[in-house]
Amino acid sequence: MPVDRPTFSESWYRVAELKPRLRSLVQSYRQRYRGRTWHVLRDSANNKFFRLDEASYHFIGLLDGRRQVADAWKVCCEQLGDSAPTQGEAIQLLGQLYQSNLLDADLPADAAGMFERFSKRRRKEVGGYFMNLLFSRIPLIDPDHFLDSWVKAFGWCFGPVGIFLWVVLLGTGLWALTGRVEALWDQKSGILDPSNLPWLYVCMILIKAIHEFGHGFACKHFGQQSHSGGEVHTMGIMFIVFMPLPYVDATSAWSLRNKWHRAFIGAAGMYVEVAIGAAAAIVWANSATGTLPHALAYNLIFIAGVTTILFNANPLIKFDGYYILSDLLETPNLAQRGKDYIYYLVKKYAYGVQRPRDPSHSPGERFWLVVYAIGASIYRVFISVSIILFVVDTLKYMGILLAMSGVIGWMIVPVFKWVHYLLANPELHRVRVRAQLVTVIFVTVLIGGLGIIPAPYHVRGEGVVEPGRIETVFAGADGFIDGVLPSATQVKAGGVDLVTARNHELQIERRRLLAERGLYAAYYRQARSDEPAQAQIVQGQILAVEEQLSRVDQKLAALRIQPNFDGVWVSDKADRMGGMFAKQGEPIGVLVDFQQLVIRVTTDQYVGPQVMRHSGEGSTVQMRVRGRPEVLLEGRVVKVLKAARRELPSAALGYAGGGSIAIDSEDREGTRAQEPFFEIQIEPVTESDVSAPLYAGQRVVARFALPDTPLLKQWWLTIRQVIQQRF
Amino acid sequence: MSISTNQQRMPSDAGPVQTAQVPAWTAPVGAWRMLAQRRDAPKLPKGLDAAWDAGVGLFVPMVPRRGRYLRRAERVLGMEDEYHGLAGSALRERAVQLRGLFRLGREKTADVDCALALVREVSRRELGMEPYREQVAAAVAMVDGCLVELATGEGKTLVATMPAVIAGWRGRGCHVMTVNDYLAKRDATGLGKLYSACGLNVGWVDGEMPPPDRKRAYDADITYCTNKEAAADYLRDRLQLGRMRGLTEALVEKINHGGMGGVDRLVMRGLETAIIDEADSLLIDEAVTPLIISTEVPNAEQDQAFEQAAKLVSRLEAEEHYKVNLRYRDADLTRGGKAYVAELCDGLPGIWQSPRMRDELIVQAITAKELFLNGQQYVVQEGKVVIVDESTGRLIPDRSWRHGLHQAVEAKERLEVSPAKDTMARVSFQRFFRMYRRLSGMTGTAWEARHELWQVYKLPSVRIPTHKPCIRIQHGDRVFGSSEARWTAVVEDIRGVHKSGRPVLVGTRSVEASEKLSSMLTALALKHEVLNAVRHEEEAGIVEQAGQPGRITVATNMAGRGTDIKLGPGIAKAGGLHVISTDRNESGRIDRQLYGRAGRQGDPGSAIAYVSLEDELVRKYVGGASRRASKRSGDREVSGSRMSRLFSRAQARAQRLARRQRKSVLKSDDWMEENLGFAGREY
After folding, report:
1. ipTM more than 0.95?
2. Class for the domain spanning A12-126
3. Could you tell me if A429 and B660 are in contact, meaning their C-beta atoms sit under 8 angstroms apart?
4. Which residues in chain B have Cβ-Cβ distances shorter than 8 Å to A8?
5. pTM, 2 dp
């Protein structure tokens, strides 16, 4: 089209002589967004809203049922000049108003058309339920009357007094929690305990119902305050991933003129919820552990804290936070327009579409539109994937179906639409080749980049730091212990005795044997002269005794144990062993070499063999210490155990110990892994770096470099592993 | 209220009417039917339905209908002897019996066969022509609601009588759409005998007829008319009904007020059956041309504005102030141009102070100046701008461009600017034809458009073979680097063929081209006829004579459509008619139609196209490639399959663009329908 907004339309004759007007039930409210005036039309019969800009409203306002459309349009053109709606825009506007049932025409109602629209909307709604089983809403009751009669009782909550009290309550709650944060944190693992789940859910319903009433009352309160409705007609249940939760339709907040009021209505739910959370904190802090009020209060704190921050306050999903943000930024319909704006940018700059429609109303808005659109789409991908995995995990086969519907809805349909747009949309008719080319090149480069160009590929495994040499010191022979070196003493090889013991029996035996040897020696001397034949025998006896003697000597020597390498002597019973009898082979303590550490990394069945194949012994590895992500250490693979095992080197690596490896649920010690794993031993290279020395017992994440692999291949592998793991 | 149509004038004086006895009861029934007529053409399917429909559309033309219809034609031909023997009265008796069956809608396949055999016999007796097998097969297909592709000269006029008789017997009216008023009159009078022998009366409508005569014509069992007349009458009837939207409202009106509103002034009696001749041109080429009934609203200020705009534009420089896009046929002001226009308009009154309206007017004036050229898009006749149909090169008086473009062109030519018009009712032919309950048609070329014909009109296409094998020699395209070289070669060819005594028919795309060729021929003292004005009767005469020895006829492509070119004595032996196309059209169908003028009914003949790389078709759709090739070749001839492919590609692109446009018109119609419900249904 050679002109942006052609003044005349061929279809004008169809509306020119009509005398329509807005239906008498329609109310209008003026609002200002970013310095521009908008008019919100509200159909009080069904609480639907329609936003008009100044010029359109001027035109619609002129239609009073007596004036013809053509006349109104002319007047508009005279008064507003270029900003007046063109004939085409006027037709479109009338059409949309008519579609929203906001227009009364002077003609007999087109009943068939109305019915068709109704059934179309119905079809859409019903279709919506099925298309979106994971997020569906079922309206149930009309709380308007109830809210009306109680708003006087609760409305003050949203006034200055209420806010003051709220701040006080919040302060008290936080005060109650100070110093008990640890306890608060520790209790978290109990929240998903099966015995707590029913309570958690009850609390959830309760708190969310109050939350919704918070919106309802706030809406009512501010609506009455500014005399602009604030009606709340729908309350119902929405299913978020099958979790039934209450919801309220507070769209009439739209008609409020003050953006802070609108934002407050959006925040009212959280406002109330946080108040409950604060009250619960006080109860929790002042009740005894193990009692029901204590547990319930904990649930309430958890819900009010975690869910509000994760969901309600999050502006990237269309809950409270989103509406608050869009009100505060004065950019209504932020999500949709953000998306449209991105499309607009692509159309304009990548596809070269002539005069695409710019959905932004002011330059200041554009930044927010772009930022929001990008943020929301990234978050959307993330949340979609999490939901799909969650659903698949919990529902198995049913979940697969749902997940597939999700994949179709979230991924395949948009792609399909895009392709369809590229092939058939009239908007592209001049630049279709360019648009297709740009798209194909973009996709090719993207896929080529991700699918062909190798990217660094790393796999990770968790491990524990262990001393390089550790030897248990056993009692060398039976004996009463004389002394044990105090634990944690640094010793040198062959230095001070670790353990000294004595054994009287052995000493007596020794003496007996010595005597015996003397006896046999005398026999020998005698026999050499008397009976040389006998002498030979006696000599054998002497040898036997000597042998016994040397054995006893050895035993006696073993009563004194010396360290055979440099290290630290550790014995937890060193101070209690004096005078005790120790049997031969009884462990007394360990000698540990902390100077040489080894890291035993457990890797899953995929990573283990990969590392074996590609890195092998001697390759370098990067490691980070858990809890100190800023420290990067280097190591060298010393040994790869070429067989899968299930016994973990340390319970710290298992789930129960806070690690990342699933533990066999039968196992009480928490060292038996659910799945076999491979062990890789790593020796730190940058030993005892002063800034970050490794200590035995620390948990470490090791990153093994595998050969560079295209990203797409890496992701595909991950997806397949995820799927394989689940089925 | 004065009513005039964009395309038609309101009838002013009485013209001749073919009347027959009209039973008294048809009028009210007709009026009721008109009231009950559905006003919304079936909606285009959307989404998955649309995909499914497109899939079906691919499949439908593959159904082997041709063999089936030919076999049935054999069966009809088999009844020949039986009907030969019947006396006149017995034949009439049969006709009455069959009429009863069809009227009640209880006919069976066998009855259709009988009916066709009967019409065939009547035709033999009354007209001395007996439809042969292929014609009967075409008739069967049309009764079945198909679009039949019949080669030029296969006797379409006669074919149409068979389904028309059956439709006439059904008693709900049958509109046979012809290409022009002249043909409507010719066919209706010429075939009257045949119809009356079948117990039917026939009427025709032409542009000059007053309403009572029209009414009589539409009340006849079979009505010959042009699509424009039919659509205009339909719109006028709808306007007559005004707010009375349908049967219900009319009945309520009758009960309340006793009166019948405008019902008695209705002309038509509903849209039941249409048999369309040259269906592709009506259903495809002209499909999106809307027919508009409008009133003139003199607006001196606006007229001045157009003149002012034309003056201003003459001070603008192309490229510097504005850019013209040939392919998409539009123009746009550059940034500098806008500023300059603003500067020029300083001090001008009223609407020149509004940037949007100002730029709009200027852009329109630029479009008129740069893209609408005298002799190509229009000619000036008697102080008026007369549009030239770009696909056929014919003049179309009484048609005007939309959006004030017409006025802009008038202003550019410094003619009196015609008053602006206010639309009162509008219908696109695409939409109009979709409202008929039974649609069938014939054309020389349908196959290329078969998918669209199915998707939009639900018309399956059937190709009927020619009666005698076609022995036309089709020469390959001759491609030249420049337009001049082409014309030289064309004249050369004409002279050569002319020497051999064969007649030559040259088709041109524009009036300008035909005049150019004419002057070249005159320079060589070659006697020739030029056809580019719109005088149907004379035209038909000239075209009929175009087959005489030594004739040279220069005509715009579609001139004399519907008229046969009969070969003069001895011409067949000399090689028949030689057709030269001097340009390829945007649609291959129109090319084929021109070629089809040679070698009709088994006659010998030859056809050839002379094209140049400077032709609009290639410049517009494969601009880059054609420019390069043109630069390389200079004035030389560069014929070859590669060059021919270039032209085919340009045609394919042109067709795709046109198809998209038609579809978008349908879609926007649907949108209007849905969203302007408060304005009542479109007419």
Report:
1. no
2. alpha beta
3. yes
4. 403-404
5. 0.70
